[in-house]
Amino acid sequence: MSLTPSNTRTPMAAVDRAWLRMDSPENPMMVCSLLVLDRPISVNHLRRTLEERLLRFRQFRQRIVDTGDRAYWQDDPSFDLDNHLHTVALPGKADQAQLQKLVGDLNSTALDFRRPLWQLHYIDNYQGGSALLIRIHHCIADGISLVRVMLSLTDNTPEPVLRKMAVSPNRPAPKRSWLQSTLHRAVDNIQAATYQTQLFIQSVREDPNYPAKLASTAGSVAFDLLKLGLAPFEPETGLRRPLCGRKHVAWAKSLDLDEVKACAKALGGTVNDTLMCTATGALQRHFAAHREAIPECGLRVAVPFNLRPLNQPIEILGNKFGLVLVNLPVEVQDPFMCFRQVQENMNRLKRSYQAQVTYSLLDLFGRGPDALERRALGLLSNKASAVLTNVPGPMEPLYMAGAKVTQPMFWVPQSGSIGIGMSIFSYAGTVQFGITVDKNIHADPDEIMAYFQESFDALSHVALAGRRGAIERKAS
């Protein structure tokens, strides 16, 4: 792909800048994706795929210029794909443990801020096939967008089709004088105010109760902001320890999505409720195995909540999501009662404005001084023990350069003092579950992966037993 670099600087959005400044030695702000392939692939074909499909997004050819009070995107004048595409081979007959160790080492290594903030490692000699590990800084885009970008590198059939794809344009704002900028902002504000007034008048005409509903919504937003600020810190457990920045990763054997759906249907809930309850059960088993007292108030996890329509094409990157704090009732031992509590907690959050509130806070922090963001981040990260993501993926198998993707995994970064990240990803009739844990936290990631399977089996047993009982009662 032949492109002429530009010296033009494009201002970084405030929310993206907030994620840029969250980067720390303990928690590099990287979204990491792993694609396990059923056979080796051609590195030359992989290179061409990146040129045609990834580099069409300009941010992957741009470095960041940080002036202290502002951050900008600027084309890297010395951009070379070889600085971002690396080939490694696992030794001997490498198993999952060896791949997990390599992924953990790379996930512990920060990106080079002198270059565009992404790296891809092609990993050869893994169980007769290969793997791709892609690390991308969170300031480029949110996890859901980046997962979709990574999946855009794949094909729906084993026969790859590469086409020249349009490059995402860089739209620099025209330079204005101070007076022009001031007048421009004033006109924008007047136009926005006029438009909002017109919408308000139209809404009142259509619904006389609209002002009351608007006031109620504003009150709900304010209440959710207050609840977020007043939420108590997480209890002191072995899951919260000072972090060292070295990551251990693991992933579980995939679940059958049809079995998960059957379990959810029998319990009268959603697939998301079922998987959140399964994660809760895995943490319960961790506490029991370590003979650690289970917090009576449960544990909270920070869950990214997508604010971008899923049917919207990924043409413009950036972060468009908020965070919600979800309570996992680890103190409830009965699987059925635990499921009901998770379901109630999730339904309550669906009616809240917490995601919009946290998105607005990130936008505000990105515009303010670094010290303010660090302080606010410290307060918020003390209100969760882990980050948990649940992203729906493609329902059909995907292929990379002719090789079948047998297992896709991804991990979003943790922030502040949070040292555990759990990810749930549905793909081709399966559910993948993975975890990343800071080395200082006393939790074995492989054990927690085994607990995840045990937890689902216990919940499924209760669900199917209850369904059989209902059928028997109906028959009698």
UniProtKB/TrEMBL annotation:
Gene3D superfamilies: Chloramphenicol acetyltransferase-like domain. Coiled coil: none annotated. GO terms for cellular component: plasma membrane. It comes from the Bacteria. Its EC number is 2.3.1.20. The keyword Electron transport does not apply. GO terms for molecular function: diacylglycerol O-acyltransferase activity. InterPro entries: Acyl_transf_WS/DGAT, CAT-like_dom_sf, O-acyltransferase_WSD1-like, O-acyltransferase_WSD1_C, O-acyltransferase_WSD1_N. It catalyses: an acyl-CoA + a 1,2-diacyl-sn-glycerol = a triacyl-sn-glycerol + CoA. Residues 12-274 form the O-acyltransferase WSD1-like N-terminal domain. NCBIfam families: acyl_WS_DGAT. This is diacylglycerol O-acyltransferase.
